[in-house]
Design brief:
The protein is α/β, with parallel strands linked by helices. The chain is 29% helix and 29% strand. It has two domains: 65 residues, Spermidine Synthase, Chain: A, domain 2, CATH 2.30.140.10; 223 residues, Rossmann fold. A hairpin with a 7-residue loop joins β11 and β12. Keywords: Polyamine biosynthesis, Transferase.
Length: 295
């Protein structure tokens, strides 16, 4: 477990919030705060919500920026539509984490998805998001969704061979999210999938923690016959990027060739602002040094 004793949760220096953690030493990201909307400690983590000058409202957990109103859609769309569009018929989807509601919002848009089950461990994140982040928490209003407050590990132990797609929308490997980056978690997800099922997990950025990316992808490869790493641009995340590890029980899957594509009109109707079929293909095209590292 990473010790982030340097979290800046209690200090707004001259109206600025600064994210700082040992996971990305020697660098920080700051934004100017107009108003602090919420700041309390839940059973699991520190929760901080504020309104910023240039990024809209922001959610911070244990000192780490989870999302801002300005750019959250790029992360939510990609972690959802990459796996959904790699699957031929993703009717039943499990979301682990995602307490802000953003991933549920995106998964519910997909025309082939009939049922969404979400398991979030921290009820307070859900409550706070509904009050202060309604642009994401609207995902909880979907009639497709059944929401459980609890431990994703325990839930999957009791739901084997049930889901077409499992999406893990976790924070970084600190606090309650640490276990979601271990090989036993990928093994557990595998057991909860139907044949040819697909998993997708947040997997960090190669600029800041290539070791985490390498290890997480290897854990996925150890459990799935097909696995890959993709990434997206999110300006308020460390180094401006976020990565995803995706695995499939179908050894013949082509991750960079979506099984399901949408017309531009369908993209507009679903309010997809980042994801499209070309972005899907490009997300798996890696710089040479990353491709060689992850080979």
């Amino acid at each position: 477990m990473v010790s982030c004793a340097v979290f800046i949760m209690d200090v707004l220096r001259k109206g600025w919030f600064t994210e700082s953690c040992e996971m990305w030493p020697g660098g920080t990201f700051s934004f100017e705060v107009k108003e602090v909307l919420y700041k309390e400690k839940s059973q699991y983590q520190d929760i901080f919500v504020c309104d910023t000058k240039n990024f809209g409202r922001a959610l911070v957990l244990d000192g780490i920026i989870q999302c801002t109103e300005k750019d959250e859609f790029s992360y939510q769309e990609m972690i959802s539509f990459l796996p959904l569009c790699c699957h031929k018929n993703p009717e039943k989807v499990l979301i682990v984490g995602g307490g802000d509601g953003g991933v549920a919002r995106e998964v519910a848009k997909h025309p082939k998805v009939k049922e969404i089950v979400q398991v979030e461990i921290d009820a307070k994140v859900i409550e706070v998001s509904k009050k202060y982040l309604p642009f994401m928490a609207v995902g909880f209003d979907s009639k497709k969704l059944t929401l459980h407050v609890g431990d994703g590990f325990e839930f999957m132990k009791n739901h084997s061979r049930e889901f077409d797609v499992i999406i893990t929308d976790s924070s970084d490997p600190v606090g309650p999210a640490v276990n979601l980056f271990q090989e036993n978690y990928f093994a557990l997800m595998k057991s909860a999938l139907k044949p040819n099922g697909i998993v997708c997990s947040q997997a960090g950025t190669f600029w800041n923690d290539l070791e985490l990316v390498t290890n997480t992808l290897q854990f996925c490869r150890n459990q799935f016959p097909a696995a890959a790493y993709a990434y997206a641009s999110v300006p308020t995340y460390p180094s401006g990027l976020i990565g995803f590890v995706i695995g499939s029980l179908d050894p013949n899957v082509k991750f960079d060739s979506p099984q399901i594509t949408f017309t531009k009109e369908e993209e507009r109707q679903m309010n997809l602002r980042y994801y499209n079929s070309d972005i899907h293909k490009a997300a798996f095209t890696l710089p040479s040094f990353i491709r060689n590292q992850l080979a």
